[in-house]
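User: Please predict the structure of the protein below. I'd like the answer in structure-token form so I can feed it into my own downstream comparison script.

Assistant: Understood. Taking the following sequence of 245 residues as input:
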Amino acid sequence: MSLSRAVAIARRIIRQFTRDRRTLAFIIIVPLVVMTLVGLSFPEEAVLDYVAPALMATLAMFFVFILTGVSFLRERAQGTMERLMASPVSRLEIALGYLLGFFLFAAAQALIILLFTILVLGVHYQGALWQIFVFQLIITVGALNLGMFVSTYARNEFQVVQFIPLILAPQVFLCGVIWPVEQMPNYLQAISKVLPLTYAVDGLRGIMLDGSTLVGVGLDLGVLLAFAAAMTVLGAVALRRGAPA
């Protein structure tokens, strides 16, 4: 595998994004609007402090999934994927190239959510700020790979959006954002243990509420890294030739 080929693909993605003002506006403005609504919906500081880590994890995964899924599908629709597949570039190099290209903007979005939550909404936290951000980056990597993987099975942007209630909505209900997992029926608790968002929420809460370090939330971090790696491999395997039919 040649890393230089993956980097070349990433550079092209970055150039495309920087020329697309609407997408850049989406990356910056939408998280601010949503987090503002969150702050207004939970005026009590204690409640907001508890809810904020879960919402940060959820929104990071949601926004990145949409951004990556739609953008990756557009690449296929424009024939870019067909040209790459016809070149000497391997499927894994293509997957890594897109991952690197999308990651810059996903990281920027995660940073915007974090800084707005801490500085503007005034959410209190215990752990180190940089460790919170690193953990968020791991969440975004998994969401990036999930978005690319899912988009290989979609034929248009509407179908990508339809995957939200199928893949993301169940995780929101079962990961502890709305209701504590411990108070759910046993069979729902069992399902929640295989959902990546459950570990994302638990990890961020561990750092922000309990003051844990990345080592202290090692289990959550390890599961998210394994999920990201698995999605990278599955996305590379699922890459299809040509544009969506």
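That's the full token string. Residues 117 and 210 are 17 Å apart (CA to CA).
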